[in-house]
Queue: 2 jobs
Job 1
Amino acid sequence: MSGCPFMGRNHQLFSSNSSQPEEDDSQKGINKASKGGIVYGEYLQLDKVLNAQVLQSQQKGNRIHDEHLFIVTHQAYELWFKQILWELDSVRDLFTKNHVRDERNMLKVVSRIHRITIIFKLLVEQFAVLETMTSLDFFDFRQYLSVASGFQSFQFRLLESKIGVADHLRVAYNRQHYRDTFHGQESENLLRSLQEPSLLQLVEEWLERTPGLERDGFNFWGKLQANIEEGLKLEKQKLEEISNSEEKGDMLEDLNKQTELFTALFDPSRHEHLINKGERRLSYKALQGALMINFYREEPRFQVPFQLLTALMEIDTLMSKWRYNHVCMVHRMIGSKAGTGGSSGYCYLRSTVSDRYKVFVDLFNLATFLVPRAWVPKLDPQIHKFHYMAECNDSSYNSYSSEDSD
Amino acid sequence: MSGCPFMGRNHQLFSSNSSQPEEDDSQKGINKASKGGIVYGEYLQLDKVLNAQVLQSQQKGNRIHDEHLFIVTHQAYELWFKQILWELDSVRDLFTKNHVRDERNMLKVVSRIHRITIIFKLLVEQFAVLETMTSLDFFDFRQYLSVASGFQSFQFRLLESKIGVADHLRVAYNRQHYRDTFHGQESENLLRSLQEPSLLQLVEEWLERTPGLERDGFNFWGKLQANIEEGLKLEKQKLEEISNSEEKGDMLEDLNKQTELFTALFDPSRHEHLINKGERRLSYKALQGALMINFYREEPRFQVPFQLLTALMEIDTLMSKWRYNHVCMVHRMIGSKAGTGGSSGYCYLRSTVSDRYKVFVDLFNLATFLVPRAWVPKLDPQIHKFHYMAECNDSSYNSYSSEDSD
Amino acid sequence: MSGCPFMGRNHQLFSSNSSQPEEDDSQKGINKASKGGIVYGEYLQLDKVLNAQVLQSQQKGNRIHDEHLFIVTHQAYELWFKQILWELDSVRDLFTKNHVRDERNMLKVVSRIHRITIIFKLLVEQFAVLETMTSLDFFDFRQYLSVASGFQSFQFRLLESKIGVADHLRVAYNRQHYRDTFHGQESENLLRSLQEPSLLQLVEEWLERTPGLERDGFNFWGKLQANIEEGLKLEKQKLEEISNSEEKGDMLEDLNKQTELFTALFDPSRHEHLINKGERRLSYKALQGALMINFYREEPRFQVPFQLLTALMEIDTLMSKWRYNHVCMVHRMIGSKAGTGGSSGYCYLRSTVSDRYKVFVDLFNLATFLVPRAWVPKLDPQIHKFHYMAECNDSSYNSYSSEDSD
Amino acid sequence: MSGCPFMGRNHQLFSSNSSQPEEDDSQKGINKASKGGIVYGEYLQLDKVLNAQVLQSQQKGNRIHDEHLFIVTHQAYELWFKQILWELDSVRDLFTKNHVRDERNMLKVVSRIHRITIIFKLLVEQFAVLETMTSLDFFDFRQYLSVASGFQSFQFRLLESKIGVADHLRVAYNRQHYRDTFHGQESENLLRSLQEPSLLQLVEEWLERTPGLERDGFNFWGKLQANIEEGLKLEKQKLEEISNSEEKGDMLEDLNKQTELFTALFDPSRHEHLINKGERRLSYKALQGALMINFYREEPRFQVPFQLLTALMEIDTLMSKWRYNHVCMVHRMIGSKAGTGGSSGYCYLRSTVSDRYKVFVDLFNLATFLVPRAWVPKLDPQIHKFHYMAECNDSSYNSYSSEDSD
């Protein structure tokens, strides 16, 4: 047994005094790099990327070593923000243009949303690098930054808007609207992003299309309401039969809470009320679709949609962890004084670690409405077949073969 | 109790229907960003960094979504490589210019080496992002890269050289010297880096200066040899007194191995032999210094030096984990076929995950030479005092106050 | 807006001098814990788990602080190994009993395999904790461990066997068969695990069932072979028409390599040969199924199966990273001397970081056989419908509703 | 070149058909495990640890797969909490008994605190494993847990108390004192931990001993106050000389804020006021010591103490990240309804992610009091020498040689 697959033999060394070893697979390639063609550094435009580190402290004649880390870390954040926006735009595009192929696009949508979560995990880790800078090191060059502040990341605001952070739920920044920080092209881009459908809105529309919600079809919501009401009634009867005790009292109290909860769930005006308060974001019908996907997640038709809902919550969770890690770092770096951009730094940032900024808050709160399996309406076998027919026609296959044109 | 420190009250919202809340600390800053001065995007030169993503597939009229990820990931790697080089150069500089202030620089040296390890940890994690790309996604744009290969990262080669990866221990790449991949300025820079002292060489010189090694002073090495020989002799006597058994046989065998091991340790010609084989890299005297620091690591004088030795091993370990993670990713992405740059990819990379590339291999192998505490020579109180006098003179204080000029 | 959802108000403090705040949602629960029922510590059997740390050094009258870390870390590893075995057994069970419901089980299978990868990621991270112990700290209690070695983890061997590490591909340990380390019940369990179908074997059987492989049906393999042969012929014709040059020579060489590669792929005897060498593990038909799932991964029918193949590679990758991290730690801890259990530690462990131990090596090497999309046979629409009918009958629904009985 | 160091040759396989390879280093050890002595499983008491997973759902006849994960994850948390307590107790012990050897213990103290931070990092990561359980999976067995809640981890409360979380700053839990959850031995242990000095108190006493604080000696605080007052006066003079402008106004405002800030810093009654509010925790003298260590961190005498202060902040940060990750997981798992133990779960937990729970909050806020290097009092050379003399006497050496008796 020889060659690379199991890495058995010695590898050739440059040292002249080693006796000529047998040639092995690691030496058999042709070194194309020496033959021309685009090379690594040009491809990555490293002349731009690696010449973009200008230390303000050095410009002012007092080079502070750690400013380089500050710059590189922020640039790395911005690079990854750009990648997240790239994925986000492609997902929004898939949702916008391709209703008819919902299912076929699902793997791509889930994979790209998943990729965003993986990038956010890295961004949360990345604070560890900046945290190697002490507050004393930072103090040495803070003065040169004058007004440059982390608050001003245009891409991060854009990203929030495109995912669906609600403008009217944002925390004000020094009594100013957050968009006032940006001018010219940036300000316009932000404004435009608010006019385009956000990921939240697109997901909402997709959820509203969940097969099985049709009142004149499977009528999931109607059936679910009937089952739950029946279930709660039976529970109550069972409870009333047992003899009085403190435990019975507790159980009745619990049951009453449950009943209230579900009564509210099936009351559309209650939903509107919560939306106005900012505690719900999805339309009533989309909420129904989401609950449906949760209950039937093992149906082949709903497996990948269920993964999508999970991944969307993951984005919210990771963005809030990112915010919280940011807060922790700022606390170490500047204490409770004002940040470099004039904001009252720590306090402002801390106030953004809030459920107000959770876009898919409704998906989290679905956990409140879980019911015993027996209460879930039995599935109509038709649900499997319906959508499947549509996909197999020729036009959908053709569009598949040119799938890179997204 | 009010204000931010415990985040007690509601934060102002943009929504007009909220009744006017009390003002809180998060709104008291002056928004300097709106007053001019260098802004975030200019400071970070984002026009350069965020406009450096040109997809070859798009240039050729067939935009492949995932090529963007490929580019951004590699650019992020290069940004961090630049930061590592920045820290590495500063550490090499501190060692080169500042013998006299060894101790005072130690915190700075250890902190910066530690920062390099934190960055490498991030770089190891970062593979998770690229691993969201499947081999099929990669296949779709591999053809457009023609010859651009990960092998060609100039900064990574430079980094290896500056740390001290030995030129003659490198694995050959398609029978070519690794430096032949680079041309012009890059080739010259690589060559020059080989002429400057590497981190390994500077650490070696610093270890040779370890106080206590002086033969006419504390004479650590001489005392240690005497103690160990005495210790082994006593062990042998004890062993010979017990009655014969299989266990006694095993213990004698162990003791003989120990004795061989230490005989070899105290034999300078054996050391030369191992250096010639590439299995040791430090000079004999530096090795003695490193062992000394290990044994007396709790002495105030040696606490931070001990941390430095640990951090140096960490760099080696993390670089080899980086290589191994790279290998794993390449296996998924291209199987065992040739890589984009013509190398036999996987096999070449796998061969670089070798102890040949461990620069501080001697520090790892110190673990082989640990002895019972009783055998460690008692410390000479002079060792504490000697170096301390030197630091407290005026000139050293002055150089402290201008410490940022490194 | 009040209550928790946006965390608006102050929270009640114990301090008596705080004026009575409004009650908020965080105080409205009933503290059931004070009412009886199984409590946290009993539920987790903490009396067992937290009283299982007996330091050998302390038993011998010389308590060494760091031995506690050594014990706890290994116990945490074993706890997680048990969880991995739990998931692995459930997945093997799902595959064994439920052919007919393949698709419906897919989400569960993928989620549990995914969970195993998440646990392995943690286990890779977990080395960081043990690495806070220096070789000197370890040296202080190594002697008391006598023969207890990390090599002896029964659960880890079991886990390897159940996934499908091939007995005959394992590296020998001090010339002994690895199973000789275990006795009695453990030895029997290991042996039995070799007689049960491994995950590899179950996945193989599942892949062989991939719809579309039927020679008298869609005949994927036959169609693919025809397309590739035709494709390569056309490529060759195109190449021969261009005028001679070095480039043409290179391209012809590449094309010849490609042709060889695919000729070998479609040669069943070549497959047998590679299986005998241990370089392939899947049956020929299973390999075909895996390639089919790769090519048609966006078909709704194949989306989750494709995720499964990805997750299986992830397990292999993470297990090899685990091994490599283990090697790195051992190098720091004991250098190149023998380990505590008598093995030549570092060298033995290093030899297990080998592709021999990659169970799903075939899935990695699929990357070698990717072809342009145009060469992939057009899909037969029947493939969607076939399996779907089966699921919607009553019996499958019934088994769904009792899905917890797995 | 042969043998393991560079892993050059093939490794022996079990397969009988491999021709006899040369023996290599990985096979030369003696397999002591087969000779008796304590074996791995006994040493780790795996019979206890691996038989402590009893599923309540299974007990009730309805085994739910994911309950196993729930149990194992919590047990892993508890194992690590035990390890953290082990390190914490040893550090508290070192501080309690060893004033005289402060410096010599510093490496040990810092290493153990650092280890705690590494464990906490793992515990933060560990949520990723539990997050693979969906709210639906959890719902299936929540009912069987009745009252067992994460709130009831005795070890975690103990850990908080031993670090120094202030009893009177804790958030109440369902209007109850947190200690009421515990009974018998646990309750007593918690109470006793409140009577022993916490880590915060021991660090405080150690900071108060910082050499250089003596009023009749170096008098750091006095000198610092004088320098700062002088510095601010000069700044003001410079500012007043420039002509009026908006910018001048801003700068004057900034300077006034600075002046207020430092006036408050040097006012002991202000310090008392903040302590009463719970916004400061350290004594006034300890705060001075901490600031001194920050300013002179590059002095050999203060390098490791500075690392200690950094590591203590790290603990606070990681504990609050742990709390926040816990909150995020609970939100996914149960929404905003009551938790298993009857608490209003999410809301209660969210309220504990508060600076109230930051023990070393003063160290963070030091960042507020940084001043230009020129204002830092020049160091008295005596500070280096004084403490060093004390260490070199015989008794300290003797205590060194028996360092394992901690």
Job 2
Amino acid sequence: MSSLESDKVMSPKLTVELLRQLRLAMKNCKYFSEPIQAYIIPSGDAHQSEYIAPCDCRREFICGFNGSAGTAIVTEQHAAMWTDGRYFLQASQQMDNNWTLMKMGLKETPSQEDWLISVLPENSKVGVDPWIFAADQWKNMSKALAGAGHSLVAVQDNLIDAVWQDRPPRPSTQLMTLGLERTGMSWQDKITALRAKMRERKINWFVATALDEIAWLYNLRGSDIEYNPVFFAYSIVGMKTIRLFVDLKRLEDPAARQHLQLDAPSRPELSIQVSPYEAVHTELQAVCAALGPKDKVWICDKAGCALTQVIPKTHRSQISYTPLCLAKAVKNATEIQGMKTAHIKDAVALCELFAWLEKEIPKGTVTEISSADKAEEFRSQQKDFVGLSFPSISSVGPNGAIIHYRPLPETNRTLSLNEVYLLDSGAQYKDGTTDVTRTVHFGTPSAYEKECFTYVLKGHIAVSAAIFPNGTKGHLLDSFARAALWEAGLDYLHGTGHGVGCFLNVHEGPCGISYKTFADEPLEAGMIVSDEPGYYEDGSFGVRIENVVLVVPSKPKYNYMNRGSLTFEPLTLVPMQVKMMNADMLTQKERDWVNDYHRQCIETVGAELRRQGRKEALDWLIRETQPIA
Amino acid sequence: MSSLESDKVMSPKLTVELLRQLRLAMKNCKYFSEPIQAYIIPSGDAHQSEYIAPCDCRREFICGFNGSAGTAIVTEQHAAMWTDGRYFLQASQQMDNNWTLMKMGLKETPSQEDWLISVLPENSKVGVDPWIFAADQWKNMSKALAGAGHSLVAVQDNLIDAVWQDRPPRPSTQLMTLGLERTGMSWQDKITALRAKMRERKINWFVATALDEIAWLYNLRGSDIEYNPVFFAYSIVGMKTIRLFVDLKRLEDPAARQHLQLDAPSRPELSIQVSPYEAVHTELQAVCAALGPKDKVWICDKAGCALTQVIPKTHRSQISYTPLCLAKAVKNATEIQGMKTAHIKDAVALCELFAWLEKEIPKGTVTEISSADKAEEFRSQQKDFVGLSFPSISSVGPNGAIIHYRPLPETNRTLSLNEVYLLDSGAQYKDGTTDVTRTVHFGTPSAYEKECFTYVLKGHIAVSAAIFPNGTKGHLLDSFARAALWEAGLDYLHGTGHGVGCFLNVHEGPCGISYKTFADEPLEAGMIVSDEPGYYEDGSFGVRIENVVLVVPSKPKYNYMNRGSLTFEPLTLVPMQVKMMNADMLTQKERDWVNDYHRQCIETVGAELRRQGRKEALDWLIRETQPIA
């Protein structure tokens, strides 16, 4: 999927004319009552989405840089773009010399605030689109600018859109309705549960802005954003009313109408009032105008400030994690069963891929891109396949050491018997979302490659087999994944795990396993996270071993303070290559874990391969799951 | 040391008359221009001290409760005192019924802010002594009260002092000067290093308020506060001036005058201007009045708001950890050598104690208090002994499960052959500070006691032997201490380690090993922390194994990104009782660690015992350090 987009990627975009037009717009009183001296263009959309639709790629449009993270700022004289170390090279190749690349993380690089203060004339106005600028960002930027005599101002019309001639329309894909057999809970019951939480916290209204939360709440899916089965919408839920803001054409579909009971609501308080997507601002204003003196409105602190600021401060209750985010993270029995089914199908596809690779690689015709495409092909043959859950990281040898690698024609490497192959990929099925990384060698790995793989494996097992008290936050488990690497003087510079949605976003809050955060919510049974330690040897190879794991109750010998204990159950059931392991470095416990895991793979996935009559893949699986001594 | 204070501890203090007087003072315009409707009495002193002098025990004076943590609030109608679970029983026994005990941590207990808002008449003034109320507390409380129409006001004279007839005077003990042979760095060089940091961050003035930072900076010690060798002082350091605020009588001592070069400063910029302790406010005002437009003043964000608010906001730079705190934490070679010497002497004393206990316990005459006293006696025989570093936790059987236990006559238990004994104690020597916990059984421990001890030991070793990258924060190591307990379903409800001063406070920032904080500074070579996991079986026994350990460079096989690695070296060298270990539960690595540790004990402490001719203790040490198979 990555080959199409990438052709034009590496030549700089010419931006003289665009910048001229943008600077004109900055002075045009049609957009703001006074001229503004700087305009900030963030990466995001109005829903805090990690992946965004083409119509929201405004920062890419204005500067040419198309990486996932970056903020552009244009003043009358300057244009600068901030991004992190992953993208220094790419950004410098994609931007012309009208732009200054601001390398985040380097000591000499100023923050956006400091830079603005250093270049702006006195008493400047800095404009931003309040829809895509989060409330917490607004607070910090506004304070810093005010301290230097400037002011941050909200420009309601987006100035990039104003100069973007052929801006793609906002997608409005068909809505897919999910029944109880997929979701385990009707949207009506989810609304009722949400209202119970609101009552408990004395909250009268809840404003939902995150697309995955809205999709989860209404048991609907869309395909507005690549890899993420979501659709553009907002929702406002009160104790007696429900408002959904969405392109009304999507609701002409009888299935969607019936699913939402638009024509015959079962009960008045479960009647959904639908309005156009754009009407959310006006409707929220109306809701706020009618608030009682003690009424409170819940909104996520990462929501755009356009909506946040509609709610008067005394009525606003900002939260890091919404009740939908928390409820969505704990999967119910139906969702867990769906995730299990999806992972078995996904394992079937990967067994097929690896069996196929073994045969094809010696011919010298398989590349990073063709291998990823083949994986997608095998996955697409599985029932209820919808699409990939993220762009496949298919990387050979030195490319494997680039953590966020994505093969492009100019970097595309051929798989061989001489180099380590790392494949991090996943899919969306109607019953669940997958995300799995395997690191394999098709020839003979070096002793050093095996050594590093084994440290990573020890870390993976240490997390997967950990037993920990109920109420433990995931960040407390992160060091378990690193202990073996640290002992050898090695490490990896990314977190160990992220939450995974059920036929939803492959990255979701509020839990995870990372040294980088302290604000994660405690793990509880039913949550699903990834366990993916790695090791990256610059210019040589990369190792990552990733399973998606389910948090399950554990029954150790004792039960201190009746707190209960938890552990993880792997949902991913794809063999870890024994050839890459140095078995002497493993403890007996670790060897037992590997053998036990492979027993589960052969029992569960083997049965499915047999059922689907996929003989070659089955033979491969049988061979790859032989116990180690 | 604990026996004297404790006689009157458990009968409630009669507070009717005191409260009447305090309420009169709250209405007296001599203290504040208008009557105030509530007065907050925190625990602390004006220096964020953990232990406080008798003259600062204002909360104890007004309500009778003498635990280490608690805040009292008095309104016209109510008097309430907030404390945590450690102290619910004690507080309820020490306070009369004019007081409401507010049990922190229980769901139904309101926060101080919420309670104030619920009981205050409209538009109330809430008073506080700004010297002992920290700047960050002020901010939160002030905001909450303002949101409900009240205001927080600074009452310059402390109202408790106003009604406290026989308030003890502020201590002004003799200052002890420490030469280069103890400190490894002159105060002049410390000032120069501080100024370099200030220059680096473009800071013009630094206000020091923490007593241990001031003692460290000037290489002086005092005994104003029990257990902590500090003295009451403030200091303000500019690029060309140094001001020290201290009771001037202390500086009549020629040794102190000479040490500080008061009569003949070597260089003008190293000339110390001394002023009375109380003059700091006026002098800081004078400094601030003369600030240039871009001048900045550094002050700790936990300093009292009286001084913080003197610094105009635009000139104020508040920091969590001051440069002195950070510099003090990394011990130099002389300090490390001193700490090692102190720990050897301390080990000698404990070997003597344990040998003595073995002989005496069968007679049935040794109690928790007499054992602690005996430990103090043995320590006091060691060279350069100054005093204890904290009240000894000497606890038998069920008392050992009370984490913050301190034996009192009414709880004092006799040591026997049937119960586990936990002793957590330490001392101040002129060359260093110690803090050690050992858990022992003088008869035959039960299988369960051994099992729990062994989990704790595994956790202790996991931290002590951990190898981790330079730049790692201590909180990332906390779970290593818990993994074995967690696997058995057990845990302990305290952090794993704290920073330790060198002949200074036994608890110091900015590093530590705890799941509770994210704001600790990274560990670096030369830092000293404790490693003290535990397990507490309510009503039965407690286990804790504590060493003080030094952060040292480690040389593992690889060196990822040239970051370098660290590990710990135990400074404490007291045997861990093999009798309490279930050796079958230990891995070979863990057994090797125990044997290696005991080899160090016998080599280092054995030699010293021999030198001191302490035969019985040496025999005990030889026996207790026999290798396990």
